[in-house]
Amino acid sequence: MAHLLITGGAGFIGSHTALVLLQGGHSLVVLDNFSNSSPEALRRVAELAGLDHDSARLQVIAGDIRSPADLDRALGAAAPGGERVAGVIHFAGLKAVGESVQQPLRYWDVNVNGSRLLVEAMQRHGCRTLVFSSTSTVYGEPQRFPISETCATDPRHPYAQTKLAVEWMLQALETSETGWCIGRLRYFNPVGAHPSGRIGENPLGVPNNLFPFITQVASGQRPLLRIFGDDWPTPDGTGIRDYLHVMDLAEAHGLALDWLMQHQRSLPVLNLGTGRGLSVLEVVQAFETATGRTIPRELVGRRHGDVARLEGCPRLAASTLGWRASRNLEQMCRDGWTWQNANPRGYGG
Ligand code: NAD
Ligand code: UD1
């Protein structure tokens, strides 16, 4: 069992991962500035993990990854038994593609500068085990499927560029200095929620992504789903993505961390997806079947910046970590709906 720092641990993927790690016996420090999340998520993580409300196995620090003082506080926070932070999972960052085009410097500051300050702080504290959240959007618009990790990268917007820049920075770091054990994980499309409905995705304002939009239409918060194009070169004309259950993704982080600590070297870059692409129409139909709700929809033009298809090859993650996504689309729909239904206003409800 290890004592770990989770940056961005109150967010969508971070909160589910924190729960998996606590249930696996680890103790955690979470550093989050709550710019896109709520402390309530972590209260519920503690509750689901069966912790007392003042348990030292989950320490929460409200702070910013761009602040060396906050990073020092987080990396210096010892476990209940006195252990020092042995590894970091770095989720904190900004993730909205459109916003990154409008505010590129903010994305370079938080995603790249924040990551640089984090690894510098890790150097100060003698901690060299790191898992970094990257994204499948670094592949741009590939032509061959499923996408393997050897596929050329082609980051087309500041969000993808900043994520790839951090991947490169980490690669250069491990080349220049021995002792680093780094995992760079490229996620496809995480969706769903913990099956309890206590934690889930909490988008502020109008959701950009398909799944939270569907669940908000199902709950009556939004009148209808707009489908962005039916003229894509796909079998039904709508966009294809590789959706994976957020609990599967959370479990992959636990395995990646165990691997790094056991092998004491870096992982190859890994795709985390299911290998099975689904179209917008397939997702909508599956959601209606799984939940019994009707999703009113209209067809509109393509969304600027979209690609036809993204579908990741999960073979390397399977052979390296022994990880495979195990939850199906029905579970993604059901669990996402349970969360939305119980928390129509997210953590603010
Ligand atoms: P999220 O926004 O729910 O979580 C990010 C967390 O980081 C939030 O709790 C936010 O408050 C915190 N944060 C942001 N800036 C911070 C700062 N400067 N200092 C401290 N905390 C800060 O996002 P998520 O969906 O959980 O994504 C987690 C990571 O995974 C992100 O780095 C994202 O780019 C990456 N990712 C997400 C997806 C996806 O579809 N959700 C896909 C690929 C990669
Ligand atoms: C988007 C980002 C991507 C980011 C990912 C996770 C864009 C162009 N891409 O990916 O970089 O990594 O979110 O945060 O923003 N759709 C609709 N109606 C909607 C919403 C989506 O039809 O209201 C369609 C899209 O056209 C797409 C599919 O649903 O075909 C999935 O969209 P989305 O959930 O936004 O994911 P990505 O486009 O993969």
Distance between the termini: 35 Å
Q: Uncertain runs with pLDDT below 50, 5 residues or more?
A: none
Shape summary: globular
Main sheet: strand order: 3-2-1-4-5-6-11
Present as ligands are: nicotinamide-adenine-dinucleotide, uridine-diphosphate-N-acetylglucosamine
Write the layout of secondary structure elements.
Layout: E1 3-7, H1 12-23, E2 27-32, H2 39-48, E3 58-62, H3 68-75, E4 87-90, H4 97-102, H5 104-125, E5 129-135, H6 158-176, E6 181-187, E7 189-191, H7 210-218, E8 225-228, E9 240-241, E10 243-245, H8 246-263, E11 270-272, E12 278-279, H9 280-291, E13 297-300, H10 315-321, H11 329-342
Parallel strand pairs: 1-2, 1-4, 2-3, 4-5, 5-6, 6-11, 7-10, 8-13
Antiparallel strand pairs: 9-12
The protein binds nicotinamide-adenine-dinucleotide (NAD) and uridine-diphosphate-N-acetylglucosamine (UD1).
Uridine-diphosphate-N-acetylglucosamine is lined by residues 95, 97, 135, 137, 159, 189, 208-210, 213, 225-228, 239, 241, 280, 303, 305-306, 310.
Describe the structure.
This protein has 349 residues and is of the alpha/beta class. It is 39% helix and 16% strand. The protein has eleven helices and 13 strands. Strands 3-2-1-4-5-6-11 form a seven-stranded parallel sheet, with helices on both faces. The protein has a two-stranded parallel sheet with strand order 7-10. Strand 5, helix 6 and strand 6 form a beta-alpha-beta unit. Helix 9 (280-291) packs across helix 11 (329-342). It is globular. The protein starts with a strand and ends in a 7-residue tail after the last helix. The mean pLDDT is 97. Uridine-diphosphate-N-acetylglucosamine (UD1) is lined by residues 95, 97, 135, 137, 159, 189, 208-210, 213, 225-228, 239, 241, 280, 303, 305-306, 310.
